[in-house]
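Quiz preparation item.
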């Protein structure tokens, strides 16, 4: 379809976009009522009419009028197309992308059929695209070019070929059109969950590739903590030092916590970490014996990337409107209104109605928060990863006894009577024999996580105490 929104905006004003984002749909509908009451026949608005209608939305009406205006008529006076103005205010408002789409869709549904016909679609594309380009200071496509585009888009949207496009067809097309999504992200600070998720997947791929590069440079299965710290300062040099220090501390703390699962906790390393946190410049040497594996790094950097994707203005500031997307991206489940308000009150520790990057990281990566999300399967996988020394996804079968014991170690610590502990030890021996028989039957010298986990799941059917012990029903 070509490049509709040409790059290199010449008159882009970020402060204007911020002001427009404060507009709500309720305020915009008040403007529609004013048009219906006083200017029902006005296809174009002069500056006085424009100010009369939209002055309640912004204190910058003159600048907006000039941006949206065209020369019309033989006298060459400036005027603004009424529908372009409404489309512009809707598109750059602070509402969700779906709400904006619904407003624009209904704006051009002239026959009130709840569908757009071909000519209505042409009008929609012409007004909406021209309005977006004018506000953003981009090159404005010609009317004839947009007319052709409107016909093409109509054919693409009209999947059932009934010569009408309903809202579902219209919305589905807009969220899949990456060029439009990128424009909305860059110039209006709006993004859909679908586009944010796509960006998130790309960000995690880049993070993994970056860590793999560090592994190759270190020629080791893990990255030394001091080297990791240097790398983080390099790739995030545009972000404040406190945020980077917080990220690094969270990664190291998570690494030590991960190593302690199923094993005796390394108290000296934990003390070293606390000392480093108290004065990290003075106690830099304390990190020399700590290294980070890929899975631990990616677990923490995911929280960092989610924030970066949501923080469209790159100011390390997120408000309650953005919190919904932040949680949705991280948990892959849309939160409701009550959940959003509850999380806002917990995360916003300084009560300024803004979630800063450090607040988000500290909340999400705290031990209490981590424990809430540690399902039995996740904990078992971490124990498995501790034995995957080469990080190739395979463990030699000679480690099966230690792996099983470490898998059950946390549960055994909670047991107070000798009989219960002895019963678990007996169960471990039975599982070991059964697993070795299964692996050797296939002539395997190593096993992966999937086969190990599936074995335990199947074993719960024949060993009734196992299911209660592992609590697999939580998954």
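Solution:
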């Amino acid at each position: 379809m070509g490049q509709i929104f040409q790059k290199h905006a010449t008159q882009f004003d970020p402060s204007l976009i911020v002001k427009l984002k404060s507009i709500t749909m309720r305020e915009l509908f008040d403007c529609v009522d004013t048009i219906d009451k006083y200017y029902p026949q006005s296809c174009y608005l002069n500056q006085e009419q424009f100010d009369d209608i939209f002055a309640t939305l912004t204190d910058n009406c003159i600048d907006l009028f000039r941006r949206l205006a065209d020369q019309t008529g033989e006298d060459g006076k400036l005027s603004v197309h009424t529908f372009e103005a409404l489309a512009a205010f809707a598109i750059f408002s602070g509402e969700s992308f779906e709400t904006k789409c619904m407003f624009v869709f209904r704006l051009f549904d002239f026959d009130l059929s709840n569908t757009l016909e071909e000519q209505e679609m042409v009008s929609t594309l012409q007004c909406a695209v021209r309005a977006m380009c004018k506000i953003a200071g981009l090159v404005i496509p010609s009317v004839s070019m947009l007319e052709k585009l409107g016909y093409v888009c109509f054919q693409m949207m009209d999947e059932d070929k009934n010569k009408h496009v309903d809202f579902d067809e219209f919305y589905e097309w807009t969220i899949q059109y990456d060029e439009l999504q990128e424009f909305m992200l860059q110039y209006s600070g709006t993004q859909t969950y679908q586009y944010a998720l796509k960006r998130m997947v790309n960000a995690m791929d880049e993070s993994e590739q970056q860590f793999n590069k560090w592994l190759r440079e270190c020629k080791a299965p893990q990255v030394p903590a001091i080297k990791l710290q240097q790398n983080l300062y390099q790739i995030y040099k545009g972000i404040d030092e406190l945020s980077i220090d917080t990220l690094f501390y969270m990664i190291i703390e998570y690494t030590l916590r991960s190593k302690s699962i199923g094993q005796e906790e390394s108290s000296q390393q934990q003390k070293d970490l606390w000392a480093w946190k108290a004065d990290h410049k003075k106690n830099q040497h304390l990190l020399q014996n700590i290294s980070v594996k890929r899975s631990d790094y990616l677990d923490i950097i995911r929280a960092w990337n989610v924030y970066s994707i949501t923080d469209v203005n790159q100011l390390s500031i997120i408000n309650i409107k953005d919190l919904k997307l932040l949680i949705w991206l991280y948990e892959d489940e849309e939160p409701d209104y009550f959940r959003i308000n509850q999380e806002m009150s917990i995360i916003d520790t300084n009560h300024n109605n803004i979630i800063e990057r450090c607040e988000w990281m500290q909340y999400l990566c705290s031990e209490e928060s981590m424990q809430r999300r540690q399902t039995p399967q996740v904990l078992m996988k971490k124990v498995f990863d501790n034995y995957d020394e080469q990080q190739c996804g395979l463990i030699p079968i000679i480690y099966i006894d230690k792996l099983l014991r470490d898998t059950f170690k946390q549960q055994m610590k909670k047991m107070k009577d000798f009989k219960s502990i002895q019963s678990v030890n007996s169960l471990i021996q039975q599982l070991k024999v059964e697993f070795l028989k299964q692996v050797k039957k296939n002539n395997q010298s190593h096993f992966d996580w999937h086969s190990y986990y599936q074995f335990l799941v199947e074993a719960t059917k024949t060993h009734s105490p196992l299911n209660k012990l592992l609590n697999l029903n939580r998954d």
